[in-house]
Specification:
single chain, alpha/beta, six-stranded mixed β-sheet, 6 strands
Length: 221
């Protein structure tokens, strides 16, 4: 009897909720802990009215992470842009559509099957780069997000994300495709590559970006 037939038979017997047969994303955490989605929802509610830095004066809303919290990889960008600020979701503009396509192309996954977030949760005026002080003010929220998800790899999209995660200055052109230990959990690796917006401005770098994502796929596999 195949797996599907076995599951159907067990469901008829009222045994379809056996832990070992449930999908990973539906399995409860050990020790009776709340599931990751609930933990993330509670975390978001705790800071959705944040005023820790001046960015709150210009935002439409706080833009929290989006996607599957059981994903082995978390993609981290810089900060919300205009469309993200309006919709309340990260990477929904041109750069986001490009990223979605590359995730499908390289990983064979839909956007909803990975997790995407930003170092800063509020849009900087004029889509400028967030300041070190703004990144520092927001980092505890990102750290808690990562603590809940516990991915295998954090993929930093661009230097700002890498600097926020690793706490040091970086040149993506020099470190792209490389991995570093995550300072707060030795089990998690940090991977650096270009920000999708950079690829849109420099289409010739598309091949490098694809190469990096293929390397990332190997890491999470």
């Amino acid at each position: 009897m195949g797996v599907e037939e076995t599951l159907k038979a067990l469901k008829v017997l009222g045994l379809g909720e056996i832990y070992g047969l449930k999908r990973r994303e539906e399995s409860p955490r050990r020790g009776g802990e709340k599931d990751k989605r609930r933990l993330l929802e509670e975390h978001f509610r705790s800071f959705r009215d944040c005023t820790r830095c001046p960015l709150h004066k210009h935002r439409t809303q706080v833009v929290f992470g989006d996607g599957n919290p059981y994903s082995p990889v978390v993609f981290v960008g810089e900060a919300p842009g205009e469309e993200e600020d309006a919709q309340g979701k990260p990477f929904v503009g041109r750069a986001g559509r490009y990223l979605n396509r590359k995730i499908q192309e390289v990983f064979g996954l839909r956007r909803e099957e990975v997790y995407i977030t930003n170092v800063c949760k509020c849009r900087p005026p004029g889509n400028r780069k967030p300041t070190p002080a703004e990144i520092s003010a927001c980092f505890p929220y990102l750290k808690r997000e990562i603590d809940i998800i516990e991915p295998k790899v954090i993929c930093c999209l661009g230097a700002t994300a890498g600097e926020g995660i690793l706490g040091k200055k970086l040149s993506v052109t020099k470190v792209r495709g490389q991995t570093f230990p995550y300072p707060y959990n030795p089990k998690i690796r940090v991977f650096l590559t270009y920000h999708p917006a950079y690829i849109l401005r420099n289409p010739r770098a598309d091949g490098d970006f694809t190469e990096d994502l293929e390397r990332l796929r190997e890491l999470i596999d």
